[in-house]
Amino acid sequence: MILRLAIASLLARALTVGMTVLAIALSVALFLGVEKVRTGAKASFANTISGTDLIVGARSGSVQLLLYSVFRIGNATNNITWDSYQDIAAQPQVDWIVPISLGDSHRQFRVMGTSPEFFARYKYRQGRSLAMTDGVVMADLFDAVIGADVATTLGYSVGDPIVVAHGLASFTEHKDQPFRISGILEKTGTPVDRTVIVSLEAIEAIHVDWQSGAQIPGQSTPVDVIRQMDLEPKAVTAALIGVKSPLQTFALQRAINEYPEEPLLAVLPGVALQELWAIVGVAETALLGVSAMVVVTALIGMMATIFSSLNERRREMAIFRAMGARPLIIVGLLVLEAMLTAAIGAVLGLSLLYLALFIAQPIVDSAFGLWLPIEAPSLRKLWVLVGVIAAGAIVSFVPALRAYRISLADGMLVRT
């Protein structure tokens, strides 16, 4: 009986109730949307590199090693000698190893020297491989493959020339050894998008006439001569390693960390990523708090709407009392109306979220490399909906008690 009264009352005030439902729906959709983006961003962050068991570099800190080797942020404290690299590669636990050489740039984008195996071994987002939108992997000494952001920002296409600058903030360019863009990678949402990739031999080639970080005055070796040289690198910045068995990972890590020839550090990418997220992920709590306040604001707005409608419903409440309705019925009616309003708003908000995901998922993935999977509502989301409904009931208690205290005589009085 009371449910029928509540539904009839809501239908009689359809416009006002509809606006309240819309406000709650939008706030719930925003809250759940922020939560979805937060978890999606965290998952994408954790999946920046996958399928790699160890990252090796000069001894420093695990986060610092991760930053410069994977995210191309900062610089290494030292390099790994080529002899040490080959010694590690020869370890029986090593299934594959990919070298990384950093130090140069192109218009604020980092240049990375590596082997062609990088394109097969580097995985992201739980095992996805790199793919080309246009062109091929480096075939010539002076070929370069660029990430999607590099191509978009600088307007490059396959076949365009590209000149590498020495260092990160240097005005000195290797103009006498220009590269040619041989391929453009698909958007990945990882630092690869902002990287210019060349071969290790190319890194050595452009530094033939350089010594101690500066060009040797008056020396300029012709490109034809450089091509005939032995361009085996003397050192690399870091290396990505895959082991033959996960059980061998810690043994190899310990062996590298105790390497006697030079101080090296081997880190587990997953562990280092968690450490880094603990530092940079503080903003997610603040963002979640702001979206939660939006929901609270909508619920307070619903309470204000109930309050403002009390004057119009004083006669209705008085008639209920005169017909023998107990105080609990009056309070229960208003609380039930609020719960129904909050429930409809919460369900509508969840529906809006899935509609937005369906439309925005491919756009966000293509533009930002952020994957937002469309999944069945998790237990956490369902608890959020229950919390909104419960909060709607709680905020309605104040106007419900106010309605109960309105006297019968005052409610029946006709004001003219």
Number of alpha- plus pi-helical segments: 15
Shape: elongated
Integer tally of domains: 2
Radius of gyration: 32 Å
- What is the residue-averaged pLDDT? 84
**pLDDT < 50 stretches:** 407-412
> How far from one another are the termini?
33 Å
The percentage helix is 40-55%
Largest sheet: 10 strands, mixed
Q: Strand-residue fraction?
A: 15-25%
Structural class: alpha+beta
List how many beta strands DSSP finds.
16
What does this structure look like?
The protein has 416 residues and is an alpha+beta fold. The protein has two domains: 2-45 and 281-410, no CATH class; 54-267, no CATH class. Helices cover 52% and strands 16% of the residues. The protein is built from 15 helices and 16 strands. The chain has helices at 2-12, 14-46, 62-69, 82-89, 118-121, 148-154, 200-206, 223-227, 249-257, 269-280, 282-310, 314-322, 327-368, 379-405, 408-412, and strands at residues 54-58, 80-81, 94-106, 109-114, 123-124, 128-129, 132-135, 143-146, 161-162, 179-185, 195-199, 210-211, 214-215, 235-236, 238-243, 264-267. The strands form four sheets. Strands 1, 3, 4, 7, 8, 9, 10, 11, 15 and 16 form a ten-stranded mixed sheet that branches. The protein has a two-stranded antiparallel sheet with strand order 2-14. A two-stranded antiparallel ribbon has the order 5-6. A hairpin with a 2-residue loop joins strand 3 and strand 4. The longest helix is centred in the last third of the chain and has 42 residues, at 327-368. The radius of gyration is 32 Å and the shape is elongated. 34% of the residues are buried.
